[in-house]
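task queued by scheduler; priority normal; single chain, no ligands, no partner chains; default sampling; output format set to structure tokens
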Amino acid sequence: MPRLLFSLFLGALLSLVPASAQETPPNFVILFADDLGINDLGCFGRKDQNTPNLDKLAAEGARFTQAYAAASVCSPSRAGLLSGQSPARLKITTFLTGRSDRASHRVLAAPINLHLPDGVQTIAQLLKPKGYASAAVGKWHLGGKGHQPTDHGFDEYFAGKPNPGAESPQGGKGELGHADYAVKFIERNKAKPFFLYLAFDNPHIPLAAPAKGIEANAKSFHPTYAALVESLDVACGRVLKALEDNGLSKNTFVVFASDNGGVHISELKESPATFNAPSRAGKGFLYEGGIRTPLIIRYPGRLAVREIAEPVVLGDLCPTICALAKVPAPTPLDFQDLSPLLFDSKPPAEAKPRVLFWHQPHYMNQGGKPGGVVREGDWKLIEQYEDGSLELYNLAKDPGETTDVAATEPNRVAALRGKLEAWRRSVGAEAIKANPNFGRALWEDCFVKTDVSQLKALPTSEAMRPLLAGWRKAMDNASTEGTNALIFLEARDAQVKATKMKYEEPPHKDTLGFWVNAEDTATWTFQAPKAGTYRVTVLQGCGKGNGGSVVALDTRQGSCEFTVEETGHFQRFVPREVGKLTLVAGENALTVRPVKKAKSAIMDLRRVILERVD
């Protein structure tokens, strides 16, 4: 009887404690690969690479078929994941320290922060008030001395060795050594909640794997790469086993992902590491092969085993982990908590599809060019920052981004481009600037003669090496002096003399618009780095039924004229070469004026591009 009364008394006391206080806080483990492609795991369709542990993880959790990294290269992707903030807001929009400016670049690299900004909270810092132990293991790449993981909330940091040697017991890329440290961290902290961020250097180039592993994968596309992926799988298996051995699996939220797409071109001394087909291109590009990631999440008892097709971004992990740990999400927050998608039996139907954004104002070592992206539903718009051109793809019908349908969907292009522009301003995205030391021949060698975004894989990686030798040599040319020069005259910088026409300032606009009077003009006063003849390109838009006006561009040395062409919408901008002008070195002035008005409005004008040709 006394025992019964005690049990009843204890039960009554527990009933007074909120359910949330009785729950054991979940552990969090993020297993993060480096440059692993969307198709590199067996559970994502790869047949020539062996990944049994990760395939099992996928069979026990949720496999995401449309998951994205926050960027197509490492540092910004990692910054977005750990902070829940957009790389554009953080001003970490390329790998640290970035590719140097070169004559082969049409635009200059945007300025970046060389470390995760002080005051930006990481997941480790956000979890600390709840008593979480935390460790960062492996690759950091978000700052050097004074800006290491332990300076950003992590209790422990073990970098390990990224290249210990092909036959090293730590693994060719240090993955086994990283896993061993992670296992010890789990064992030391099994009695308390913990957060483990295990960021492998595998399978990033340079590639190194044991001879035995290479031989076992001899029939793979790239035997050394396949051996590395297999070793990565072994390393992940050790961590998953440690969770099981310590009775922690059921209460641990495990994530596996990659920081960006796989390397599909030759880099350093390597032939292409992998292929991402049917996704286009790879690491460094804003096409699907560069930003898609193989995402797996396992949380036994809470998360049902299934495939999830909704588009998500790795930056979503930060607010999701905060929600599960019952701590406030960071502010500002640029991503969203995935809990409703993960755990609700019937997630609330959204009236509108989620809109995703990317801003990458840099050239990449793999051939990627500066650009921005907005995805809404099945539609993906890419804005090429070199010339302002706009590409539109329907990913449901065209997952390989083979057919640009911008010309047939001008209204959609205009709407999406407006959303991208408004978002850029909301996060303080850095603008791009023209390269005054541009060299067209060098640019063409890198981006025109060989368009590696369209590269198709051959049966073996080694067979592709000679096809890319000339392109790789051109990409590695670090010359900073070009025989040409490039000047951008932006709409926002024009001096307007008009009764109607004006620079449109709403967040989704960036144009000289309301151009309905033939007397209205716009003038730029600017510096030319070199004297000579300059090719003139206008970035113009014109709605259906409004084409045909004749417009002149005047300088003190001469003028050229062009006829405005319809683009389907005033906000669907198309770059058009319209003539040549002579400029002097130093100060110049250029005026745009209508010569003949054809219809109700003349055009919208976003930019005039001047390129020295001789």
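post-processing summary
- Residues 76 and 515 are 40 Å apart (CA to CA).
- Residues 440-475 form one domain.
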